[in-house]
Amino acid sequence: MKKKIFTLVIALVATVTTFAQQIAVVSNGSTDIYATLAEAIAGADPGSVVYLPGGGFTIADDVKITKKLTIIGIGHNAQSDNVDGRTLIAGNLFFDSNSDGSAVMGCYINGNVNIGTAETAVNRILVKYCNLNAVIANNVNCNETVINQNYIRSESSFSGSSATFTNNICKTIWDLDNGTISYNIVFGSHSISYEGSKAIRRCDNDVINGNVIMDTSDPHDGNNCQVSYNMSRTGWGNNFINVVDDSWANVFEYYSGLNPSSNFHFKDGYKSYESVCGIYGGTGFSDGALPPVPYIKLKNIPDKTDASGMLHISIAVKASE
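Predicted structure:
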């Protein structure tokens, strides 16, 4: 089910043109082409990079990642010049034993990214530039998880493990300990009948700063956290920024509800806070950030051939940083 080709450049061109729905797996200068995501995961050597073009890829729950892999799509909101559109993974990803150091970037994932199991901790997983349902760490000893610049549609939970959770738009965060929760927009809350609703629930010993808490419930019920410069309606923590009763449409430049097409830069009345809270706070977010795959920067395709019957096409390709 795979065929060898000689260079990464050829493989990436093939995924955009002739092999529009095929997957390039790159390892040690060699590139293999696979037809399905499951085959790519099974056939890849540890340390490989799996490049997914635009289009849809289905994966079953019995497919587990048990080696270090980096999975890179062209984006969950692909640029218009990426004619194949976004990269969609239908299903869940499971980073299981021996997958330490793996990553997934630039994908729209219908399901969850699952890290470790109840019996096995997995460390140093990176989730970046994705639109996904949730991140679920299943073991208290999962360490050095990094969640950055994602749109997370449902509640993420961490089983008491540590993580760096920054510059995301997310629903709620649950049970993240000894980590960092900074510069996120948290738009929902988790409700327990006897404890009420919280946007950030049971997160202990964390640095929690620079977040925008949109839900009107109490933001947090954890212990021993350093809480500062958060924007909310409740005056939470040190140096808080209280929105009081102002509409979120008056806070953000273009607010069309919580979706990736909204513009979450602050309007003039709140512009001075943009460097200290929200997804543009700190140094971890860029509007132009893309997963590290080549994309079309410039193209010129004439409508007609020249006098000799030649059609002169100019295309400039740039690799995202």
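Summary: Confidence is low (pLDDT under 50) at residues 1-20.
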